[in-house]
Amino acid sequence: xxxxxxxxxxxxxxxxxxxxxxxxxxxxxxxxxxxxxxxxxxxxxxxxxxxxxxxxxxxxxxxxxxxxxxxxxxxxxxxxxxxxxxxxxxxxxxxxxxxxxxxxxxxxxxxxxxxxxxxxxxxxxxxxxxxxxxxxxxxxxxxxxxxxxxxxxxxxxxxxxxxxxxxxxxxxxxxxxxxxxxxxxxxxxxxxxxxxxxxxxxxxxxxxxxxxxxxxxxxxxxxxxxxxxxxxxxxxxxxxxxxxxxxxxxxxxxxxxxxxxxxxxxxxxxxxxxxxxxxxxxxxxxxxxxxxxxxxxxxxxxxxxxxxxxxxxxxxxxxxxxxxxxxxxxxxxxx
Amino acid sequence: xxxxxxxxxxxxxxxxxxxxxxxxxxxxxxxxxxxxxxxxxxxxxxxxxxxxxxxxxxxxxxxxxxxxxxxxxxxxxxxxxxxxxxxxxxxxxxxxxxxxxxxxxxxxxxxxxxxxxxxxxxxxxxxxxxxxxxxxxxxxxxxxxxxxxxxxxxxxxxxxxxxxxxxxxxxxxxxxxxxxxxxxxxxxxxxxxxxxxxxxxxxxxxxxxxxxxxxxxxxxxxxxxxxxxxxxxxxxxxxxxxxxxxxxxxxxxxxxxxxxxxxxxxxxxxxxxxxxxxxxxxxxxxxxxxxxxxxxxxxxxxxxxxxxxxxxxxxxxxxxxxxxxxxxxxxxxxxxxxxxxxxxxxxxxxxxxxxxxxxxxxxxxxxxxxxxxxxxxxxxxxxxxxxxxxxxxxxxxxxxxxxxxxxxxxxxxxxxxxxxxxxxxxxxxxxxxxxxxxxxxxxxxxxxxxxxxx
Lengths: 335, 454
Description:
Chain B: InterPro entries: NADH-UbQ_OxRdtase_51kDa_CS, NADH-UbQ_OxRdtase_suF, Nuo51_FMN-bd, Nuo51_FMN-bd_sf, Nuop51_4Fe4S-bd, Nuop51_4Fe4S-bd_sf. The complex is a heterodimer of chains A (335) and B (454). Chain A has 335 residues and is α+β, with helices and mostly antiparallel strands. Chain A is 20% helix and 19% strand. Chain A contains 7 helices and 14 strands. In chain A, the strands form 4 sheets. Chain A has a 5-stranded mixed β-sheet with strand order 2-1-5-3-4, sandwiched between helices. Chain A has a 4-stranded antiparallel β-sheet with strand order 13-12-11-14. Chain A has a 3-stranded antiparallel β-sheet with strand order 6-7-10. The mean pLDDT of chain A is 87. Helix content of chain B is 44%, strand content 12%.
């Protein structure tokens, strides 16, 4: 076990845990954002640089600070490590820079993008980005490509997080897609335009933080915030069968895997569940999916806050301001 | 005139063949090391010599060798980084082309010290003709019993391979090189773990530059202490400098570290002064990625001391008034050179060569190139200059590998030292419309004053 202090909050985590996961155990505002790291995909992370943090003391044995900001998603904690995230102006400045870089070649076509409303980049930019761009030049553009008959690749929107290539590598039996080219002109591609054709390819859509990979069966059907997300399950021989049905009335517009509070899928689903069962009768509906109240998807879905949890949350905030260690956060009330 | 250690025999006719090389004292270090020394003793000699990595970073080679995880049960590898792609640097090519056996001898001695049974020379794809030279030399060494099973009758065996890359600059970064050598896309790895612990095929690996490995030969032959006598302080031995640009005698020079920069540029033995009788404007001292320095700061430090060709002296003043020795790509600019155009060329290179893995470098290098293109072609704004500084600052230190830093440092330093020239480009777009604008009318300090309206 290693004791690590993040923004003044101490937490004890198992050896080998990354700084980001240690911060997630604390929860709340001090969790660094992550655009490329995905806890269920091996080797992901370290690329987007939005999770950079400052390590002011390396460990109890060697308390020297680390010379550069480090990617918290790939740096393991050491016993006695002291980390600054939102308490370090240097980190916030660097993060602002990275968000600007990510938006540089992003088309900002949110009004016509299916991902709008559930886009990690939108959320990140809203929180850390500048209101105006300093970039005057043309943005890079690509032609839209069909990856198989169910997935549309809109490379112009891609931020090259590599998550989908890890899905192709780790979830699907044979790797048929990767990155071609170099630098800002590199692109996600199926090698020589070969279609991704296997039972788990649809998960690439769920891991994509932006609207680069979208579900062709859902494209332009509806804005996500006009749909009703419902938790549902079915007996599936291939996968867990635990999904979210995005419904409009009785109609199932889209089926996706369930994402946790950090936008990560823990249980991947197969293409049969995703595409072939768009009838509500095929599913056992568990009830409405909890949507974070800060999310735009929660628009119109007012939830009555339980008075007891609300009271606990207020107490928690007061404790935090006093500088005391935080008790377990309430997932329904934190962003 | 300093003593030549690497290039002493380079002009002997036929030195690229095994027989001539052997007759001129070649492979003595292999005999000495394998027959009379233990691997640790060889490492100790390299440590004593104070040899520093010649690829650019200047990390002590002996220390790098001692970091190698010797307890691991996995095989160990020595990999030679011959992916010399830094603009302005062409020293490794000279060594490998002219005297290939020197590198092979260094590889054998080095591999023995590290306990490697298989070693690789990773060479850039553009050097395809050198691959053939090296392969021929390796064949000769196998035939003579210096490679293969039981070298010289000792229990030590070694196989050596040459692997050509596909011509990406990023594959000169050691972890990207290892990825490429493994047959993958040449993206740099996240560190730690460092290659000394998990390098090639996740086994302990040392990656050294061609010149570093070649320098092991004179160190083992003459002893580490003897080698350390050359040079000043922590900069020991000799260094190959690739001199290019507006000088009378461009070429490769083996210098003793500690030579005054002024002597190197102006003496007839080395660069022979600035061509066409012009004045020197600026110098990039160690390959395109190190900060550019104006003429006055390259000859003397900010404190007024004479600047020497050493790691420490060139770095004196930090990045405010200093630079780096880097890989020894010494580029000299005369007064007709346009710093903005030169910087745009560098920025274009880094934009083209960025691997695209991490966002600051992928997006930032392209942004800087576009802004510089605009300024150079007379479409810039005054705010662009500060924008460039800010973008460079946001790339520097925030990337996975040093390519981001290498792209940011030249921009930051050029603006720091030549800001007036950028302002001139913005203020007088009609004067810079000709690409050779400063050849017609050099930009001098009086003009500086006029341009900023003083």
